[in-house]
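=== Structure Prediction Worksheet ===
Name of assembly: unnamed complex
Input type: mixed (protein and possibly other molecules)
Chain count: two
Listed entries:
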Amino acid sequence: MKLIKAIIRPEQLGDVLAHLYRADIQGLTITRCDGHGGEHDEVETYRGTTVKVGLQEKVMLDIGVSESFVEACIEAIVAGARTGEVGDGKIFVLPVERVVRIRTGETDTAAVTPVAA
Amino acid sequence: MRVSRLSRLALAAGLAILPRLAFGQDAPPAEVVPADTAFMLVALALVMLMTPALAFFYGGLVRAKNALNTMTMSFASLGVVLVAWAVLGYTLAFGPGNAVVGDFSMALLRGIGLEAKGTIPHLLFFGYQGTFVVITAALISGAVVERMRFPAYLLFITLWSLVVYAPVAHWVWGGGWLSGLGALDFAGGAVVHVNAAAAALVAALVVGPRRDYGRRAMLPHHVPFVLLGAGLLWFGWFGFNGGSALGASGLAAQASVNTFLAPAATLVVWMLLDLKRTGTVTAVGVATGLVVGLVAVTPAAGFVSPMGALALGAVAAFPSYFAILLRTRTRLDDSLDVVAAHGVGGVVGALLTGVLADPAWGGQAGLLTGDAARVGVQALSVAAVALYSGLVSFGLLKLIGFVTPLRATDKMERVGIDLADHGEEAYTHGEGAVLVHPDETPVFAAAPVPAASPSLA
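=== Predicted Assembly ===
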């Protein structure tokens, strides 16, 4: 199992989700966060006070998948999140020691395999 | 009817006790009536509030990243359009001129003082009419939100107010050819709503749909704003319709109460339709329904009975309700349903005015009271206004497209027009912002260059 952690532009979330669903990946968690990926700073002005917004709004996705879904998941995120400009984000793939599905007590691969509701 | 709206309404009211209202060639010299002036001062402020109200109504319906842009589109109309109205618009609409357009006799407010126009000071009449052109231009923005560039929008509504609104207002209220035909338009069903909706339809087509339209869910970001805006619109509409009596008269009472009743009926029908179709009554539906009722009663307010207003409001719910459902299945991205609410609502209101006009309530007969030709005149008037507004708006947009791009770039649209065109965010927590020293020159994003030939959807 792997934990896939992706940081993307908030405006690309819809596209990423659509690609993930198409790849049959439905279990995920998103977090709205701020970050900086080296992109051009946005300049904003409020009543004569000019600021450079160094931290951009981002969305972080956490997706636990079994080995066979890792590549499909990465491809889906890249397909949905890429605009080609600096600041598109990163994908981190992390090893996972143990997974437990709270409802059933299933562990590991069984716990990250989707079930029909 | 070769008479102005003022005298037409006075005649319509049939108030023999108020002969002073009937100014004209052989009427006694007009004088300012304090009660009428007081009422119209309030009406001026009420209608002015409708434009900020529209900002909230529209602003709540868009995504958070475009909230400021959408609201500023309405507020900016209070600037550019009102200035244009003072400089040139008013005289083109209300100057004597000919049957098609006014003249330049009152350009730069020349000759407009405190002398009586009807029973109120001429200056107040000018200001009151100014509130109408401001909101009419702002209504168009609903069709192009979330992707039209702000500078192009400003240019468009300013020119539109002069070359479309002013002549159309002249046709109906300035002694032009439509008032001569006997078309009934109490407070601007054709001049305001059909006029704005035709321009909105063309603008939505020329600017093209949002990149996410029909592809991604785009939800209203703040429904309470939508309800706030709708409530304030209703409040201001008492000045819009009631004030169109141009005096503190029985006619103003009739128009105001009809403006209370008709949207109530629309609201009830709209809720029932919602309930039948989806099993729930939606808040956005409530806000939309009441605005449709307000639009529909606008041409009718001073010509129909209170029961007629209820019937008109109820019937007007159906076409607009289904027009909105139909629109979402097309590639016409009239984002905030200006055509369905103001176009369809305005046309239905104008036609129903021809059906329900009641000689006992305003002195004009309609289809139900024996004047079968009236509906035809009403249909002709909205068709003429829609055709003129649509064609000239198309030409204006094409022209502006050669000077500056109409459409935001793909990137601007993704990031949001707030950041792209205004350099602000509606909902920022301010963390991570670095103060730029006043002496330091920040680098602003460069504007896109105009396309050689603007694309047509």
